[in-house]
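Structure in, sequence out. Go:
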């Protein structure tokens, strides 16, 4: 009876897998008819309320139109809650988190409206509150698609992309409607509009590429229509000029026509996809009935012949068991590990058929296992290709952004050379600082994609220069206190990555600590290399989170797109892994967090010629722009109110004269009391900034002659 029981168990297993596919299709159809339909109407009502709220935020006037729209939104919210209750058991564990997020956003709808009515929200802030609720709706859409049919899943994902693109059009419309009241877009609103437009174009391209001919034809007609062409032209003009269109009626008419077409095609496409899902579920149930009946007959026949062929069947099952164990415990895990390492895998070669001999039942089961194996291998290869594709997208976007930022930095250099106004120089310096930070963010994307750094130096770079350059790339660099460090240098090939790594840790320390506190950065020679510590005075983290973060830093996992909140952590982990650097997070004795960076001895270069304060010739090892930022952090008497170093200011009155030497005159009394110095006149400030500009210009020329 043992072979018979084994065969029955295998038959039940295959039947359960097939039944699971049918149940998944039926569940997806139920979710679409309840939550899917009601959430679509809810999204449309929220989009309309967002537009009306944008007008109210601009004019600061509440009207009956806004009140009526809010009433319709409330009715849609009630219908959505009722639909969730009707879905019942179809709402699985995978939907509870996104559904809870959406419910929480709907609960905040009253407070969002109150802030708008009371004039407590700016226009962009109020719109972003609605955007968050709509984002949670689209997140719910992602979890509604739970079918195992790859064709249906691909079409559903493409329709989801087209729907999200429709949402970005609505966001652009809401911004423009609000700006029409005062005929201007603020700088943050212009940046948001540009981001929406870029996301819309990307999603339209991705969604259109994934749709089949039947579903794609309608969207192609929309994109070729006059309303869409008019919208695209107006969109480009707004991005270029930063001003809303003057013809408000024309804009509204174009958006209304375009939105009507897109909503209609989206609804029709959803109905078609739902019908396909229902048909697939029905066909799967029929297949289950046929397969179940045939399998039952096979089991009954096996009972009759089990006495005669018992021993032979036992041997055949043993061979099948060995093949299955080898597949599940060796071949598939090895394949997944190879894919994780980035190796290319041939699906046809790896998905070899399970070779067993014996009765027809055994060979049928072997073929079933082979089908499961091919599906698993195909899915794993597809996931690996998707990760590589995402990494390539990161790399391409980062390179494009980096090229634009380099051009922007070059323009800023030219403007700084031609400007002698101190106020203008200060503004250009701030813009230069922001651009440098943007370049670091672009390099973070390159790091996540696995690309090597574009910047490197032939000569070793002093530790103090790397630390100061990293601090200069942080927004709140004035809060960072860099203590005196032992004179040493790091390998030039790793200098860019080390600067990036330290900058990420310092920025994290400034963000998660009170704004009135300082962040301490110190370093020291240790037996295994060079240690850099970054300590803040924040609230710290629980011990469990420290342990989890340290595991990621020690063994960086595959980057998860859903975990984008920890982007800096993944970047630090990748950079540390690239050069064998150890990074450890722990609680500070003062209550905050201390990040310890241990640079291995192989990257540390002894340079006794470097001076202790780091402001000498080692500063020339950095590129001109990084050197300018580092000098801005440590130069005394800057406009940001940094302290001025005064010679012998910290010595006692007895030692001041003795330390000067016989040939040096004592320092003036005023030098020891910088707070009592007279305020500079406008002419002196102008001369000071002009001198600073000439100095940085000479440094650029020297660095360009030296080369990286």
């Amino acid at each position: 009876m043992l072979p018979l029981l084994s065969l029955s168990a295998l038959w039940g297993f295959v039947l359960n897998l097939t039944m699971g596919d049918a149940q998944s299709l039926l569940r997806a159809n139920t979710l679409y008819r309840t939550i899917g339909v009601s959430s679509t109407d809810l999204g449309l009502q929220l989009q309309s309320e967002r537009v009306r709220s944008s007008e109210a935020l601009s004019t600061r006037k509440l009207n009956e139109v806004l009140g009526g729209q809010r009433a319709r939104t409330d009715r849609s919210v009630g219908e959505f809650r009722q639909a969730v209750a009707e879905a019942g058991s179809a709402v699985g564990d995978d939907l509870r988190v996104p559904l809870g997020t959406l419910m929480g956003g709907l609960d905040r709808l009253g407070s969002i409206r109150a802030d708008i009515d009371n004039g407590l929200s700016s226009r962009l802030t109020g719109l972003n509150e609605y955007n968050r609720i709509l984002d949670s709706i689209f997140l719910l859409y992602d979890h509604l698609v739970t079918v195992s049919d790859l064709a249906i899943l691909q079409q559903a994902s493409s329709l989801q992309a087209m729907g999200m693109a429709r949402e970005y059009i609505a966001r652009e419309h809401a911004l423009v409607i609000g700006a029409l009241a005062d005929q201007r877009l603020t700088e943050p609103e212009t940046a948001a509009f540009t981001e929406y437009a870029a996301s819309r174009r990307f999603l339209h391209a991705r969604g259109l590429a994934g749709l089949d001919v039947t579903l794609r034809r309608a969207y192609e007609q929309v994109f070729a229509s006059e309303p869409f062409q008019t919208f695209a032209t107006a969109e480009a003009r707004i991005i270029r000029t930063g001003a809303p269109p003057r013809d408000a009626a024309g804009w509204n008419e174009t958006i209304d026509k375009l939105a009507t077409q897109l909503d209609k095609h989206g609804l029709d496409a959803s109905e078609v996809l739902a019908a396909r899902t229902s048909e697939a579920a029905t066909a799967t149930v029929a297949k289950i009935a046929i397969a179940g009946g045939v399998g039952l007959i096979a089991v009954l026949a096996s009972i009759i012949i089990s006495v005669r062929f018992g021993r032979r069947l036992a041997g055949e099952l043993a061979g099948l068991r060995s093949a299955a164990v080898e597949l599940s415990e060796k071949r598939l895990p090895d394949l997944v590990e190879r894919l994780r390492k980035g190796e290319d895998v041939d699906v046809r070669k790896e998905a070899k058929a399970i070779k067993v001999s014996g009765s027809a039942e055994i060979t049928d089961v072997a073929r079933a296992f082979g089908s499961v194996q091919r599906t698993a291998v195909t899915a794993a290869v597809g996931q690996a290709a998707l990760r590589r594709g995402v990494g390539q997208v990161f790399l391409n976007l980062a390179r494009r952004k980096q090229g634009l930022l380099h051009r922007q930095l070059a323009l800023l250099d030219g403007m700084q050379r031609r400007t002698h106004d101190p106020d203008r120089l200060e503004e250009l310096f701030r813009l230069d600082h922001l651009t440098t930070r943007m370049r670091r963010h672009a390099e973070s994307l390159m790091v996540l994609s696995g690309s090597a750094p574009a910047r490197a130096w032939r000569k070793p770079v002093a530790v103090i220069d790397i630390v100061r350059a990293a601090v200069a790339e942080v927004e709140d660099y004035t809060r960072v206190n860099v203590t005196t460090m032992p004179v040493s240098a790091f390998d030039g090939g790793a200098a860019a990555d080390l600067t990036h790594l330290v900058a990420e840790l310092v920025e994290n320390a400034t963000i998660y600590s009170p704004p009135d506190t300082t962040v301490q950065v110190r370093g020291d020679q240790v037996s295994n290399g060079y240690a850099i510590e970054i300590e803040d005075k924040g609230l710290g983290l629980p011990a469990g989170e420290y342990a989890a973060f340290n595991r990621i830093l020690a063994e960086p996992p595959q980057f998860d797109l859903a975990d984008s909140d920890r982007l800096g952590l993944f970047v630090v982990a990748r950079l540390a892994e690239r050069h064998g650097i150890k990074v450890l997070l722990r609680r500070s004795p003062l209550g905050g967090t201390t990040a310890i960076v241990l640079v291995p001895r192989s990257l540390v270069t002894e340079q006794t010629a470097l001076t202790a304060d780091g402001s000498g010739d080692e500063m020339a090892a950095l590129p001109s722009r990084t050197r300018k930022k580092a000098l801005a952090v440590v130069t005394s008497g800057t406009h940001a109110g940094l302290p001025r170093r005064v010679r012998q200011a910290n010595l006692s009155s007895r030692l001041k004269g003795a330390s000067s030497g016989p040939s040096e005159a004592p320092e003036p009394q005023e030098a020891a009391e910088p707070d009592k110095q007279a305020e500079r006149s406008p002419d002196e400030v102008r001369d000071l900034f002009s001198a600073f500009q000439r100095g940085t210009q000479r440094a650029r020329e020297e660095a360009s002659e030296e080369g990286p």
